[in-house]
Structures are given as structure tokens and as C-alpha cells.
Amino acid sequence: MNTKLKINIVEGLLEVEGSETFVNSIYEDFKGNLLQNKTVKPISTVVTEEKPTKTPVKKTKQTVTTKGKKKAKSKTPSIISSLNLRPKDQSSLDDFTSNLNIKSNLERNVAFVYYLTHELKTTNIGLDHIYTCYRHLKAKVPAAFYQSIADTSVKGWIDTSDTADITLTSIGLNYVEHDMQPSN
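The structure corresponding to this sequence follows.
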């Protein structure tokens, strides 16, 4: 059963959803900090219980900031040394990307997922796979690597709802196969 907690301290707003234990721990922590500071008095609190939905929710590691916004825990991506990007009897990543008209890191991200999925038949593509592709090509890795992946997902080209299993969408497939092909 999910429990929801909303606190609006003149739009400071803390909104938490999860198990009752989790929500209570966040509330107690918030209340403790609030009483310590004594700068603002709570205006309203609402606690509701909801029945669980039938669709499973994928859990990711998250921390909650004091303003209630969720922030993914950062992890430095690493190279997957066992990932062979120059396979025999198949197109290498170098050859594949050199045949595409890549103008941005977002396009590079979707091209990498396409290559891993359709050329190498890789499953469970994660952030480390994409990072390995950047390093293999000696391409400059985006300073905001995770944001770059998220932005590619916002374009609709890849699905990052599970970052341990990034998939290519039909929009991404069409983009690589039609829009990224060099014009002759």
C-alpha cells in the first residue's frame, strides 16, 4: 500500500510517496528540521493511503532533497572491457558511426543504442555500455553524461525507464535508419 504526504509551507512544498515507513521517516526528519529552525510553521499536512496499482513500479536508487525533489544517486560510469566493438564478421562501431551523419551527443547516444541492439544483439544495455562506446571512439564524453542520456529519452529515441535496460524506440529506430543517413 502506498502512502502519500504533501506539505505546503507557502509553496515550499514537500511531496513524498512510498511505503508508510518511508513516508513517516521523511516526515519525522522534516518535522525535526522544522522545529530546530523554528522559522516557519506548517500550514497544512495531508496523509492519504492509496491502493496499490496493478502495474509494477520499477524502483531506482534515489535520495530526497530537503525541498522534496528526487535526485538520482550519481555513479561514475565505467568501461565494459568485455564489450567487443570491433567484432569479426560484423560491422565495427567505428564503421557504423562513420556511415551516419551525427551532429550531436543525443544523436550519438541513439546511434550507440541502435548499434548495440541491432548490430551486436546486446541485451540489457546500461549506461556503462554507452559510456564504453564514447571511450572506444575517443569521442568527448558529455560533461553532463546522465543528462545527455535523459535528453535523448525526452526526444523519444530511447527508453530509459530502466537505466539497466535502455531500449531503442521505434522513433529512434526510424531516426537512425532514415534521418541520420548521409545525403548523397
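The radius of gyration is 22 Å.
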